[in-house]
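Reviewers asked in the last cycle whether our approach scales beyond single polypeptides. To address this, we selected a multi-component target totalling 846 residues and predicted its structure end to end. The input consisted of the following lines:
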Amino acid sequence: MTESNKLPSGRSRIDSLEMRGITKRFPGVLANYKVDFDVKSGEVHALLGVNGAGKSTLMKILYGLYHPDEGEILLNGKPVTISSPKDSIHLGIGMIHQHFMLVQTLTVAENVALGLPSSRGALTDLDRVSKRILELADIYNLKIDPSAYIWQLSVGQQQRVEIIKALYRGAALLILDEPTAVLTPQEVDELFVIMRQMVKDGHALIFISHKLHEVVEISHRVTVLRDGRKIGTRLTSETTKQDLANWMVGREVGFVPDRGKVEIGEIRLKLERVVCGSDRGTPGLRGVSLDVHSGEILGVAGVSGNGQRELAETITGLRKVTGGKVFLEGKEITNLAPGEITDRMLSYIPEERMRDGMIKDFTVAENMILREHHKLPYSRYGFLNLRGISKHADDLIKQFRVKTPSQETHAKNLSGGNIQKVVLAREISRNPHVIIAAQPTRGLDIGATEYVREQLLVERRKGAAIMLISEDLDEILALSDRIAVIYEGQIMDIVPRATATPEKLGLLMAGVHP
Amino acid sequence: MDSTTILIGLASVLVAAAPVVFAVMGETLSERAGVINLSMNGTILLSAMGGFAVSVRTGNLFLGFLTGMLIGAAVALIVAFSSITLKQSQVAVGFVLALVCRDLSYFLGNPFMGLAGPRLPAWPLSGLKEIPVIGTLFFNHDLMTYLSFIVIFVSWFWIFRTRPGLMLQGIGERPAAAYVRGANVNLMRYVYTVLGGALIGLAGPTYSLSVKAGWKGTISGLDGIGWIALAITIFGGWNPLRAAFGAYLFALLQWLGLVLQPSLPNIPSQVLQVAPFPLMILTLLLVNIGDAEWVERTLASLPEPTRRFFAKAFRAMRASPPAALGVPFERD
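The resulting structure, written as structure tokens, was:
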């Protein structure tokens, strides 16, 4: 084997990998049907599709977590069998899972060493592992401290640990399963730098995503899946975002929803120099003053971690306000209990929908009455009215087009988009006067994103005052009437949409007054 | 009290703590893998009775200890099967087993009540026991006490210095991560639960054949030890060294109750006998006290050096259970 066939890590390249005619059935679902897919050394091949299109299934087959019902896998032209992750790792295939497979209480080196043979037999050889990690980190330009505990690391750093872990195990082909879903825009840029470097060195990368701009930015080729079938493969340079979007969804997709004209009304939500702490004990908000009017969407833009979470939580009563005042429809609600604030017709679509937006082990129907369970027609004299709850759930499932086997299905079994629809249905169906929507489309696919945005605009037309907290500038620009930029717990400026440009907002988000 | 009395007293504390050490190490291993073996109190009683009975009948001490371990392993196997394979609540199953095993030990142990039985002989280590202080403290005991020292060290070394131990940490903390790295999570849980159960089962005969030799049914004075061992496991932060410290602390408190009795005639002897139990629970409260809001507030008002000292001490005491403790593992 010649030197040019080697990767910087010392392993040989995977020149080509081909999946042919892959079919996978689950009870009641055809997850993949006769899918062909291939990837070569030195390229990023994007796998694009909405949630449930079969991307993850296909990749789990490649990684040996699932077994295909039909089809074959060829490595460098030769058929191979992959029956467990052990086989795929042996062949040089690595996978960065969407939910990191790291043990929080162990160090970076321990996580890398976990499950690997050791040079000292049954004893751990963490010194050697650490040395090799530093070598790899040097080659691939990844900053990492082998002795740091995982819980001390940011999400972006944890992802780097996953990449190092795969490289350490000799991965020549890396599957990245929605790697950007949990990252801040800066961390995404850093990841892309690493990915470009790896491709230049001869790695083959598979990039799973449903974010079009990322696919267009990073990939060389793109394959679109829909309903488990392959729609096609193209060179990325020969497609547009619009084409890809239509392919993914199977119909024309409107990127900029129709906002319509709405009369701006009275002030519904008012913050006066609000101050609060953050989870880290540092100041969270340092004197935020804002107001949101009826019939208006106020966008709150900013880089993540600049006080957005604290802003949402102080308004909804989840976080203690240590200075300043909050008013809802003219009445002060500073530091009232969350339930009391909710009862004054404030609705909240939380950022962490799986943690704060719902109870995973409750059914869809139960999740739909979390806010109003103590009121008619859902309960009376402290007893639940099951018929009322059930009818309510049926109505909302129909109205909000929630895809669920039944209203008795546990919420955790729904897809991300449908979980958000349940949250949205619960929060919006009570005709709220004020809505706080935090990252309402994060992690959702195109179809669900479009739906959530439409619903927010419908509520705006009905006269609700909406605060939209989002890190997605496109979303902020598409929906907001005015845009407040938050930086280090302070509002840098509030600009009307008409005069807002991405450049101007970008500067404000970085703490610079243009 | 002169220094010799104190030294001999402390040595007796190490002996008295041996069964608690076995139980706590067993529970620590089991919980590290993610399985709570709540049956401990019953298991210790049943294995104490069973070990004693077998030794009385056969006259063989080794068979007595072996019986204890087999009983512990068998009870743990029930816990493992119901929680890992049947995915039932570990708390419910463990609690019922704790009650059933206790009553079973009283019922089946009736014929052996008050019988004279064999007792593990002392086994001073000649050469080592002559070392001043240390010899008396550590090397003038019986086999089980020495074994308890070894079990502490081996458990610690296994968890924190070996590859399988690293995997054990992974299995209890993030089973999915262990699984994608090739571990058979459920099999490993079985192994550690049963192994831990065998250690818990060793605690019983260590009482009935050595520390509190004999079987006296309900007045054996063993009821409750298992619950305290459970508290010590938590106090120990799932670290064998710290857990051993907890076990010795408990034995020390019990010993103090005994030696203080003559000098405190006004306090009923029952109070001093029972006091170590609530005291141990109180120490348990200290583990995560640094997280309490009122403590944080009080700390903030202290002068800086004092504040830093306490903050550091509280952080050192902190312990959180393995994240997947009590949660069945399902792949995907």
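The longest helix of chain A spans residues 185-200. We regard this as preliminary and will revisit it once experimental data from Aim 1 are available.
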